Amino acid sequence: MSEHAGHAGIVYWRRSPWNGARCVPVVLSLLPGELRAQDRDGKVVLRGDPREVEGRLTRLGTLLLDVGGRRYALVGRAGARSPAPSAGQQAAVSAFQRPSAPSGGALDHILNGGAAARMRAWHSRLGGAGARLR
Questions:
Q1: Across 36-40, 89-93, 94-98, which has the greatest mean pLDDT?
Q2: Rounded mean pLDDT of the chain?
Q3: 53-92 per-position pLDDT tens digit
Q4: How crowded is the C-beta side of 96, counted as CA atoms within 13 Å?
Q5: Which residue, of 12, 38, 86, 107, has the fewest CB within 10 Å?
Q6: Contact, 134 vs 45, CB < 8 A?
């Protein structure tokens, strides 16, 4: 778990599969024994022990997580109508030591801004922290 301790990043919580304005930025953080997501106002929207998290990564790069009986769809890139991350969210992420950006394929970077690579990296981190992922 030590290599996965203390990581955070901004991902987007797809609250609605149809309404892009409801795809909101959250700070997803993984600490020893805790996975947490906070919205633009600092409100915790997801919290749980990573060992109790279940989920999967879809072919399109959506990380579907089941935490505390609720499903969350997380994506690595905002929709056109999504709000930008707040200054507080950006500051929260910068407080964590971050490893180098995950590398992905050229098409992922060109067409999707590297979003699929970011979500694959989260999938790997969560699996290393004990989450039951497919």
A1: 36-40
A2: 84
A3: 999 999 888 999 999 999 999 999 888 888 999 999 999 8
A4: 19
A5: 107
A6: no
Contact residues for 111 (Cβ-Cβ < 8 A; gap 6+) = none
- Of the candidates 9, 11, 38, the one whose C-alpha atom is nearest the C-alpha of residue 99 is 9
Beta bridge partners of 9: 28
As a whole number of angstroms, the distance between CA 23 and CA 10 comes to 12
CB neighbour list of residue 59: distance below 8 Å, 6 or more residues apart: none
Both tokens of 112, joined, read 């999707």
> How much is the pLDDT for 37?
97
To which residue do tokens 């930008």 refer?
Answer: 84
Return d(Cα 53, Cα 125) in angstroms, integer: 12
The pTM of this model reads 0.82
Buried b / exposed e along 70-97 (16+ C-beta atoms within 10 A): eebbbbbbbeeebeebbeebeebbeeee
Q: What is the pLDDT of residue 104?
A: 55
